[in-house]
Amino acid sequence: MFWMLFLLFLAACLAAGTTGAVFPPGPWYRALKKPGWTPPDWAFPVVWTTLYVFMAVAGARLALAPDNGFAMAFWALQIALNALWTPVFFGLKYIRAGMLVLTLLWLSVAGSIVVFWPVDWIAALLFLPYLLWVTIAGALNGAVWRLNPETAANPPEAPR
């Protein structure tokens, strides 16, 4: 049963991750000023793949736990916000709205850890690297906003 649930949660994670293929960074993002500590391009798929596996394991563990309703709601909220950021930031090119989505994502991941702990502490621990990565992503989004105030205030029109 665990493996079937794991595959189901992994499918949800990979569906969220496909937004990166649908809305790739492209020339617009490459032209933006970014801080010197921006992770290299190769790091993003490696980190996200690892995090999605951790998230799927956590989801499967939680799904099998008793009294998991609130924990499952948080899992669903964070994956929805996870899927939303890429279309907002890269698709619409809304740097400020992307920061709002990332802030909500950070809160949902942090809240997930708190809510998961009494249900399954291993699931909570599996979300700690995710919280770290979302913290880095939020700092990067904020730095891009700060370094590109004109673009953030006046996003280019998204291609149709």
Secondary-structure element string: HHHHHHHHH
Which word captures the global form? elongated
Largest sheet: none
Given as residue ranges, the uncertain stretches (5+ residues, pLDDT < 50) are none
Q: Any idea what the radius of gyration is? A: 16 Å
Number of strands: 0
Structural class: mainly alpha
The percent range for strand residues is under 5%
Mean pLDDT, to the nearest integer, reads 95
Please count the helical segments: 9
> Number of folding domains?
1
Share of residues in helices? over 70%
Distance N terminus to C terminus? 43 Å
How would you describe what is shown here?
It is elongated and about 50 Å long. The chain is mostly helical and 160 residues long. The protein has one domain (2-17, 44-153). Helix content is 79%, strand content 0%.
Question: Brief overview, please?
Answer:
79% of the residues lie in helices and 0% in strands. With 160 residues, it is mostly helical.
Any key phrases for this structure?
mainly alpha, elongated, 160 residues, 9 helices
Helix/strand layout:
Layout: H1 2-17, H2 19-22, H3 26-31, H4 43-64, H5 69-91, H6 95-119, H7 121-126, H8 128-147, H9 149-153
Helix pairs in contact: 1-4, 1-5, 5-6, 6-8
